[in-house]
Amino acid sequence: MTEPRDLAFERLLEFVRDARGFDFTGYKRPSLMRRLQRRMESVGLETYDEYRTYLEGEPDEFVDLFNSILINVTAFFRDSEAWEFLGQEVIPQLLENAPRGSQLRLWSAGCSSGEEAYTMAMLFAHALGDDEFRNRIKIYATDVDEEALAQARQATYTQKQVSAVPPDLRERYFQPVDHGYVLRGELRRCVIFGRNDLLQDAPISRVDLLVSRNTLMYFEPDAQRRILSNFAFALKRRGFLMVGKAEALQSRTDLFEPFDLKRRVFVRNPGAELPMRERPAVPRLEPETDEVEGGSLTAAAFEQAPVAEVVVDPTGRVAALNHGARLMFGLKQEDLGRRLRDLELSYRPIDLPSSIEQTAAEGRAVRIPDVAWPSRNGDRSLDVQVSPLVSSSGEPLGVSVSFTDVTRFRGLQDDLETARRSLETAYEELQSTVEELETTNEELQSTNEELETTNEELQSTNEELETMNEELQSTNEELETMNDELRERTDEVLRTSAFLSSILANIHQAVIVVDRQLRVAAWSRPAADLWGLRADEAEGENFLNLDIGLPVGELRTAIRAVLTGDEPEDLVVHGHNRRGQPVVCTVSFTPLRTFRDDVEGAILVMSAEREDAAV
Q1: Which of 35, 279, 490, 590 has the CA that lies 20 to 30 A from 383?
Q2: Span 302-317, pLDDT tens digits
Q3: Distances (CA, A) of 8 to 70, 129, 401
Q4: Contact in structure between 321 and 401 (CB atoms under 8 Å)
Q5: pTM higher than 0.70 for the full model?
Q6: Which of 305, 338, 334, 309 is nearest to 321 (CA)?
């Protein structure tokens, strides 16, 4: 039977989910309760119902609550042995299996502040080179913590955070800034950060490598199975999955096969591959040409053709210009008969003479697509085609150069590509929904799962220990910060002590400081020279018990008066210095006050003269 406290805890989780969209119901209860309890203690509340009421009245508390639950413990090259294996074994195999020049899609799930996503980026950039990396690699990094994602997008880290990055990679991919390092822009732009809830949101699809390290261990077994099902959908056939060192999949699902158990690298089971829908090929349309006989009609059609066209005879002179060519390139009717090489058209927008020579040599049309042509109305895109002209008997008559404005067509192509991507996203979300519906059928296999209960409990215990270790690591970092602050304060006290000692050493009169119990707290160097007693012999002793050649008992009344807040007059007493010479000593009394103006002791300033000199 569920205890009332557990019911209140579940109600609190449902409230957080309904109020802010964070669903923690799939997280492991022991660690979740521990972190919630810690947050409740910080605001002085004892029950879950009281904390729920507090959340309703203090919406800003949600931020502190999420920061307490979502412990972001991560680092560059964390568990270096696993990353070394990824760079030496997994990445080469991915590149070998992928078609040459094809794009690779990577996903870092639970990326926190971005260190692991950027670690992947550095390994692939090192393997491919910067240029090929920018053209081929697309990295998606997701997390539920918006604050961590904002930090990851800045790509700025302290010197301590980047200390684990190998020196050659740190020098190559990081740029030093004030008090830290920032990732270079060419690497940062290849990583796309976004919020994704592994339980609620659709997974990213067609992924070649998925890295989710020490994320699954926070979830209950049922939630872990749902996430693993989404991971299997996200990966391509034989795609790689890399999890944390405390996470094992071989006893939980048959969707993955072990690639290297020690480093926790798995591949998707091809037997669990979903059927892929093939897209119908787009038929290629061949242009049809019709020849129209008749001189005047042919000339009119050439003049009003929708594309700009220039005809060049075999001697390299311009034989014909239509209206489109004159308008596009600023040519005139007087340019007919001029050598093409004398016109700007010969080298702008492309090198026409070389294309004409190629057409004449090969006897076929040469097409140059996507030629940039800047104009007053903005940049335009042209398709240029150089076609040979031959007579009915096969003799060469020259070449025809046509310039087709495809700017609008290219814009439509871009719009079509955007629409296609949107359609793919919708299809991926649909597939994700289908996958979630299929999880109902997987629940029928729960009988076999009961045989693995013992192993699951041991695994959960190990994961719980790993979670506690991360919490201890976070606490240790806080202790290190406190230790640094304490060291700074100690240094400040030592500097103050040295400062006061320097002052006492340079006062010519003997200075003695006693506390309220009349114990010596300070004994200056002139006092040691005058009475023959070193500071280490006098400090800590009762001043009235010192045998220093001075009748210290005569000073008792004046010292007591100072301790009560009075300021007695100077006393003149007779005594003997350390050499046994009679001296006349004038003693001044001053109270030693604290910053609260409380009397903490007395300061005695002594000036001594030889008695015969005083007379």
Answers
A1: 279
A2: 777 778 888 988 888 8
A3: 21, 55, 80
A4: no
A5: no
A6: 309
DSSP class of residue 553?
G
pLDDT at 235: 92
305: CB partners within 8 A, 6+ apart: 322, 324
- Residue in 455, 116, 546 with CA at minimum distance from that of residue 252: 455
CA nearest 210: which of 104, 97, 93? 104
Residues present in the chain in total: 615
What is the C-alpha to C-alpha distance for residues 77 and 73, in angstroms, rounded to an integer? 13
Q: How far apart are CA 146 and CA 150, in angstroms?
A: 6
Proportion of the chain in helix, strand, coil states, percent, rounded to 5:
45, 25, 30
| Cα–Cα distance for residue pair 58/54, rounded to 1 Å | 6
Contacts of 18 (CB under 8 A, 6+ apart): none
Q: What are phi and psi of 210, to 5 degrees?
A: -120, 125
Say whether 93 sits in a helix, a strand or coil.
helix
Q: What is the pLDDT, as a whole number, of residue 285?
A: 27
Give SS3 for 33: helix
Q: Which two structure tokens, joined as six digits, stand for 307?
A: 């594309």
Sheet holding 510-515, edge to edge: 520-523, 510-515, 599-610, 582-593, 571-576
Cβ atoms within 10 Å, residue 253: 18
Q: What is the C-alpha separation between 530 and 506, in angstroms, rounded?
A: 15
Model pLDDT, residue 290: 38
Low-confidence residues in the chain, pLDDT < 50: 1-3, 274-294, 615
Query: What distance in Å separates the CA atoms of residue 371 and residue 383, rounded to the nearest whole number?
Result: 6
DSSP code for 86: I
Sequence-ordered list of residues with C-beta below 8 angstroms from that of 236, at least 6 positions apart, any chain: 206, 207, 208, 268
In the chain, what percentage of residues exceed pLDDT 90?
Answer: 17
